Amino acid sequence: MSQTPPIDLNKTLGAVYIGNIAAASLFGLTSLQAFIFFSGNTRDRRPFKRLIAFLWFLDLLHIVLMSHGVYSYLIIDFSNYAALERPVWSLLVQVITTCFSDLIVRGIFARRIWVLSGHNNRLLFAITLGSIFVCAMGLMFAIRGFIDGSFARIVLESWILYTALGSSVVVDGIVTVSLCVLLVGVRTGFKSTDSLVNTLMLYSINTGLITSLCATACFVTFAIWPHQFVFIGFYFVLSKLHVNSLLAVLNTRETLRRRNAGMTSIPQSPSSIEPLTMNFLVSSNAGHSEPESPSVAKPQPSKHPWQSRC
């Protein structure tokens, strides 16, 4: 009678347990940022607010599904090592929620890039197509998990996960580079205005860098330990990073507006950064208007792409 091979609990149950704790902590941060976003927010349109609320709901569903999966392994199937060979249904469903959540976040950034680039349809098509491809590969991975019913069989089709994670890194890189290149073109040479542009570039780089590093870590750990759960721990955190990055950008708008309020506009130059801050980050209420300060010169009409309204 053959003996069951030893299982490294640190790289199986330990990995999913730590990943669940990290994801739960990030969900707390997501909830706080969502509360800040909705508190006194009168600028954003109602459909956009509903979209952000739906993202928060997906994030909540994601943490519930993860916790159920971890509970199943640690409590329901306690000391049942054979159970570690089968993916719990809730872990496969959380992959589906991650796919749709990431697709929405990338779609929001794609829309902002499209506006900032002066309606560059080719760039929009590339980012949209890449985002849909990442989502499709993730859904395929989840479906194969339901069909195969074991991690050993899933490993035999590892190209699906490699393709999904690799394309995710590429798409996030395209989004980050596009934002930085477009924001560089916004610079005017005035220190106060360029300071805001540099701030936006920093947020853009952090957004793409953090998510790309997490996806790369998931990719590498799956390649090194395909029969362990280390990659699952990183995957738990991935969607949380996407949502938190988006909310962090949205919640910095008021700070940028206050900084912008103290600027002196220079005629015949793209000195009014307010349209960039508003339109790049989120759809603003077209009917909302603010009184002009008499000490600030009225900017000249401009047809720059970042000033277009949604």
UniProtKB/TrEMBL annotation:
Keywords: Membrane, Transmembrane, Transmembrane helix. Residues 284-310 are annotated as: Disordered. Residues 168-254 form the DUF6534 domain. The keyword Metal-binding does not apply. The chain crosses the membrane at residues 15-39, 51-76, 88-111, 123-147, 159-184, 196-225, 231-250. Pfam families: DUF6534 (PF20152). This is DUF6534 domain-containing protein.
